[in-house]
Design a protein that fits this description.
By secondary structure, the protein is an alpha+beta fold. It is built from seven helices and 14 strands. It has two domains: 148 residues, Fructose-1,6-Bisphosphatase, subunit A, domain 1 (Fructose-1,6-Bisphosphatase, Chain A, domain 1, 2-Layer Sandwich), CATH 3.30.540.10; 109 residues, D-Maltodextrin-Binding Protein, domain 2 (3-Layer(aba) Sandwich). Helix 1 runs antiparallel to helix 2 and helix 5 runs parallel beside helix 6. It is globular, with a radius of gyration of 18 Å. GO terms for molecular function: inositol monophosphate 1-phosphatase activity; metal ion binding.
């Protein structure tokens, strides 16, 4: 059993780390340098500064904890695989210092700081902080999900036709085309679709009932680590796109309000033409 008091302490630390990182992002706006990790996949000085601050703060608070951040993570250049954390790994903070870097670079106010905690073989704490809207989405296992301290829940929508879905596209244009076909397929079956540029905010919005579902095929664990606990604690459902048990170290995900999950899976199991 996880001690609620301990989880609350971890959650408060993640919130504070996110707030401090937001100050860094604000200070770096308009003066950062941009480079490409790969074509169209951007990283800035602000990403690095944000991650450095978060890591220092959390490791000072919890010296025995591990840390996995997007910047500097060891990804196989050929397979694009990231070695999963074992179930018996020490508590490990998983951080995206700016989720939605392209938005940040272009001063589009839709980016965030995402922090999750891997503990006893699963994600147990999640924080997604949108500094431009001053919205702190936070959750810990068994303690519910909140937005700025107030409880949030997934939407009551019960049919795909009534729903608003969001998705994400990878920077690589070849891999991106796969989801273009799925976008077309969901367009025919939903009320509306959105592409925001931030996985973590997409998942936070599912938790808050703003979006009814989110799907994607190309996420790393730091993209989802803050949002997984949010969706679960808000009453939602998360699986792989084939309906299998969710693994945050796999690339694909479908996160929904639960009520339309089966309907989403039906669409995803029927590949569109030209996939």
């Amino acid at each position: 059993m996880l001690d609620p008091t301990t989880l609350e302490d971890y959650l408060a630390a993640a919130e504070e780390a996110a707030r401090r990182a937001a100050v860094v992002l604000h200070e770096w706006r308009k003066r950062f340098q941009v480079r490409e990790k790969s074509p169209a996949d951007l990283v800035t000085d602000a990403d690095v500064a944000s991650q450095t601050l978060i890591k220092a703060y959390l490791q000072e608070r919890f010296p025995g904890h591990g840390f996995l951040g997007e910047e500097g993570a060891e990804i196989d250049p050929v397979t694009r695989e990231l070695k999963p954390l074992p179930a018996d790994a020490p508590p490990t903070w998983i951080v995206d210092p700016i989720d939605g870097t392209a938005n940040y670079v272009h001063d589009v106010p839709f980016y965030c700081i995402s922090i999750g905690l891997w503990l006893q073989g699963d994600l147990r704490v999640g924080v997604v902080y949108d500094p431009r809207m001053n919205e702190m989405f936070s959750a810990a296992q068994g303690l519910g999900a909140k937005l700025n301290g107030e409880p949030i829940h997934v939407s009551p929508i019960t049919t795909l036709r009534e729903s608003m879905l969001s998705t994400g596209f990878p920077a690589d244009p070849t891999r991106s085309m796969k989801n273009v076909n799925w976008w077309r397929k969901f367009t025919e079956r939903t009320q509306s679709l959105r592409r925001t540029g931030s996985t973590a905010l997409n998942m936070a919005y599912v938790a808050a009932g703003r979006f009814d579902a989110y799907w994607a095929f190309d996420n790393f664990v730091w993209d989802v680590a803050g949002g997984v606990v949010l969706v679960r604690e808000a009453g939602g459902q998360i699986t792989l796109v084939d309906g299998g048990a969710y693994d945050p170290f796999r690339y694909d995900i479908i996160a929904t309000n639960g009520a339309i999950h089966a309907e989403c899976l039906e669409v995803l199991k029927d590949p569109p033409e030209n996939l």
